[in-house]
C-alpha cells in the first residue's frame, strides 16, 4: 500500500507545543480527494495541507479541515512553506525568496526569509478584502453565551473575506473573551445560514501590551470547536479593523491561543487607499514537532 510522509508543524510560534498545529503532506501526488479528506480526518487537526505540482505556480496547495476542503488557510500556509524550506524545496541560501502557491481561489505570493535566529519567517499575501453582509449581534451573543452589551454596539458583526468568508465579531474586553461559552450547534447553524466559514471574536485588549488585539476563533460546521491561532481570519480582521478606524497602522502584531494554552503571534501588514484596505499580509514562523509515515 502507498505510504506518504506526514509532518505536524506548529505555526505562528517559535517553540514546540504552542501556536496552531497543522498536518502537512508535502508530496501528495497520487492522493484522491477522498484520501486527502480521510487523512485530514485521521489527523483531526484544524487543517491539513497537501502540496501538489502546479502548472500555474511553484506549488499547488489544498487545505482540508476534518470535514471539508476550504479555499484559503493562513496557519497551514505558514506550516507548509516552513516545511518546503526545511526540505530544501525552497532554497533560502541566497537570501529572501518569493514563491507562488496555486489555490482554488487563484495564485497568491508567499515571501520567505531567514531570521537572525535561523527560523523561517513566512509572509502570506491574502486575497483582496471583501466586505459582505452584516449579521445579527444578538444571535451571536446567544451562541457565544454572553450578553449583547458585551459586544461593541457601535460596530457591526460582519462577514469579511480575504479568501475565506468569516464573521468578524468585536467584543468589549479580554475578560469577555475569557468568558465565552460557545454553543457549537448554534454557531454551526449560524455559519450555514449566513454562508460563511467561521466566527472570529476579538477585543482590543491583550495579555501582552506589545500586541494590539486578542482573538478567539470557532469553525463549528467544519469540525473545529476552537482554532488556536488563525491566519486567514486574522487577515480579514485586519481589514475590518482598518475599515472601521479601530487600527490604522500598516504594521503591528496580534495574539491568539493564550486562553487555550497554545499562545501564538501573528504579524500583520496592511496596504490601504484611504479608508479602504486593499491588501493584507500575515506573517509568522513555525516549528516541526512530528515526522511520520501514513499508509493509505
Describe the structure.
With 296 residues, the protein is α+β, with helices and mostly antiparallel strands. It folds into two domains: 3-126 and 285-295, Roll (Diaminopimelate Epimerase, Chain A, domain 1), CATH 3.10.310.10; 130-281, Roll (Diaminopimelate Epimerase, Chain A, domain 1). Helices cover 21% and strands 40% of the residues. The protein has an 18-stranded mixed β-sheet that branches. Strand 13 (214-219) and strand 14 form a beta hairpin. Helix 3 runs antiparallel to helix 5. The chain is globular, with a radius of gyration of 18 Å.
The N- to C-terminal Cα distance equals 6 Å
Q: Which residues form runs of ≥5 with pLDDT under 50?
A: none
- Mean of residue pLDDT values: 97
CATH architecture annotation of the largest domain: Roll
Give a summary of the structure in a few sentences.
The protein is an alpha+beta fold. The protein has helices at residues 33-43, 74-86, 137-144, 174-179, 184-194, 231-243, and strands spanning 3-11, 20-25, 48-52, 59-64, 69-70, 97-103, 106-114, 120-125, 130-135, 157-161, 165-170, 198-203, 214-219, 224-227, 251-256, 264-273, 276-284, 286-295. The chain has an 18-stranded mixed sheet that branches.
Amino acid at each position: 500500500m502507498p505510504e506518504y510522509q506526514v509532518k505536524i508543524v506548529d505555526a505562528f510560534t517559535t517553540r514546540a507545543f504552542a501556536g496552531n498545529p497543522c498536518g502537512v503532506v508535502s508530496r501528495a501526488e497520487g492522493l484522491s480527494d477522498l484520501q486527502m479528506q480521510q487523512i485530514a480526518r485521521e489527523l483531526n487537526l484544524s487543517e491539513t495541507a497537501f502540496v501538489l505540482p502546479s502548472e500555474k505556480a511553484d506549488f499547488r496547495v489544498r487545505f482540508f479541515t476534518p470535514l471539508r476542503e476550504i479555499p484559503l488557510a493562513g496557519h497551514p500556509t505558514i506550516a507548509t512553506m516552513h516545511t518546503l524550506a526545511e526540505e530544501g524545496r525552497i532554497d533560502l541560501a541566497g537570501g529572501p525568496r518569493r514563491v507562488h502557491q496555486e489555490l482554488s481561489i487563484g495564485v497568491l505570493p508567499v515571501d520567505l526569509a531567514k531570521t537572525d535566529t535561523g527560523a523561517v519567517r513566512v509572509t502570506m499575501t491574502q486575497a483582496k478584502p471583501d466586505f459582505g453582509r452584516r449579521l445579527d449581534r444578538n444571535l451571536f451573543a446567544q451562541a457565544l453565551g454572553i450578553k449583547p452589551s458585551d459586544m461593541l454596539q457601535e460596530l457591526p458583526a460582519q462577514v469579511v473575506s480575504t479568501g475565506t468568508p468569516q464573521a468578524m465579531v468585536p467584543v468589549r474586553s479580554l475578560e469577555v473573551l475569557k468568558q465565552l461559552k460557545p454553543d457549537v450547534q448554534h454557531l454551526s447553524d449560524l455559519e450555514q445560514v449566513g454562508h460563511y466559514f467561521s466566527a472570529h471574536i476579538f477585543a482590543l485588549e491583550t495579555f501582552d501590551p506589545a500586541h494590539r488585539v486578542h482573538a478567539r476563533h470557532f469553525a463549528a460546521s467544519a469540525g473545529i470547536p476552537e482554532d488556536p491561532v488563525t491566519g486567514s481570519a486574522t487577515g480579514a480582521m485586519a481589514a475590518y479593523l482598518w475599515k472601521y478606524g479601530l487600527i490604522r497602522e500598516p504594521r503591528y502584531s496580534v495574539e491568539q491561543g493564550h486562553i487555550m494554552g497554545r499562545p501564538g503571534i501573528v504579524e500583520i501588514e496592511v496596504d490601504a487607499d484611504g479608508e479602504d484596505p486593499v491588501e493584507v499580509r500575515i506573517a509568522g514562523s513555525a516549528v516541526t514537532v512530528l515526522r511520520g509515515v501514513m499508509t493509505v
